[in-house]
Each structure stands twice: as C-alpha cells, then as structure tokens.
C-alpha cells in the first residue's frame, strides 16, 4: 500500500485557520491516529486527505502521486464516518455494492466482491437487511465493508466507534485493527478518545488548535504505564 505524505498542508476558512502547516508521513500499512480536543482540526485534516475538503495550501501525495486537488472518487480511498452514512432504503448488500456499480463493475464480479466483503466483516447472513433492521455495530460493519470493497489504497476512519456502546466499541476497535493489519492498509483514524488511539495506533498525532503538537508511538507520546 502507498504511503501518504502531507507537506505544509493548511486549511483556512476566511480569516480562521482550521489546520496550519501540517506535515506528516503516514507509512505503508501504518495506522496513524489523529487525536485532540474538539475543534483542533482532526476532521478537516482527514477530509483533506480524502478530498472532501480542498486544502488552501500545501501538498498531499499518495504513493508519490499528487492528489491535493483531486476529487474523492479519483483517490481510491475508503471512508468510514461516525454516523455510518448508509443509504437507509438499501440493504446491506446494496449499500456495499453501490461504489462498485458506480465504477461500472459488472454484475457477477460485483456480487462476488459484495459477498466477500460482507463475509470479511462477519455479516454474510445479514446481506438482505436494511440498516434500520441492524444494530449500530452491524451498521458500522456494513460501512466498513463498503469502504473495503473498493480495495482502497488508504482507509480513512472518522470517529468510527463513537456512536457505539462501550462493549461494542471495544469489539469493533479490535476488529478494525485486525482487518487493517491483515490487509496491510495505510490508515488514518480520527478520534478524541485517548485510550482508543493508544490501543490501536502505530503512531499518534496529537493536534491542538490546528497544529501538530506531538507525533510518536503511543508509549512515547504518553510514557509507559
Ligand atoms: P475536530 O475534527 O478536531 O473537532 P474540525 O476539523 O472539525 O475539528 O474543525 C477545526 C476548526 O475549523 C474548528 O474551529 C471549526 O469550527 C472550523 N471549521 C471546520 N469546518 C468549517 C467550515 N466548513 N467552515 C468554517 N469553519 C470550519
Ligand atoms: P439490481 O439493482 O441489480 O436488481 P439490487 O438492487 O437488488 O440488484 O442489488 C444491487 C447489487 O447488490 C446487486 O447487483 C448485487 O451485486 C448486490 N447484492 C444484492 N443482494 C446481494 C446479496 N444477498 N449477496 C450479494 N450481493 C448482493
């Protein structure tokens, strides 16, 4: 998987600065957690990497390719949102199939990939359920399957656990980390939860006020317990 490099990336909204001079290298197969208080610029950073927010300045490359001003559909990234963002009128399988159909993949291959993706998140038996017929954890696993089915170069997770109860959060955290490691996916994980970041990330990026305060493996950033 390619590495993601941010070089002097900034995002301004009028006179207000959401992200300032951000430079960061996310290695091949690495899971980096962006951590910090509400409003510090985590989501804006993730959205710039994903192409949903256009950087004001700086450069973002993926495997050496400049993607700074490319739209999301030309970056080959999988995105999982806090609120799952599933289409409510579509079944689990249809939700997962959507991105493949958009890419014009034929019916037989779409069906096979959808089945594989749902099996990977242990939802093969719920393929025909609608989102409202599934638990929060199941919905989030559909969202994960939808992100993975396109075989993304990079996985972007925006507070993917924060709508789940504590037990599910723990379970999903382990599941996401296992999937990410087994697929060797370069991953950026936004969270405001320090324990979540410490127990999943290879490296943590502490942000404050739009700036990177500290970068390092969890035990370097917080010290060994
Ligand atoms: P976090 O994800 O860490 O909570 P955000 O990236 O959402 O932080 O926001 C960083 C800053 O940018 C905040 O001050 C926020 O109010 C501001 N901001 C985010 N999106 C917009 C927007 N569309 N217009 C204006 N300001 C924004
Ligand atoms: P269509 O629009 O082709 O009639 P649907 O809207 O029911 O089909 O589903 C869209 C796509 O979702 C299908 O082409 C198929 O690839 C996938 N799909 C739907 N249900 C399943 C399922 N149970 N298992 C695997 N894939 C499915």
UniProtKB/TrEMBL annotation:
A biological process from GO: quaternary ammonium group transport
Entry annotated with the keyword Cytoplasm: no
Keywords, ordered alphabetically: ATP-binding, Nucleotide-binding, Transport
Cellular component terms per the entry's GO annotation: ATP-binding cassette (ABC) transporter complex
GO molecular function, one term: transmembrane transporter activity
Organism name: Paracoccus aestuariivivens
Boundaries of every ABC transporter domain copy: 4-225
Protein name: ATP-binding cassette domain-containing protein
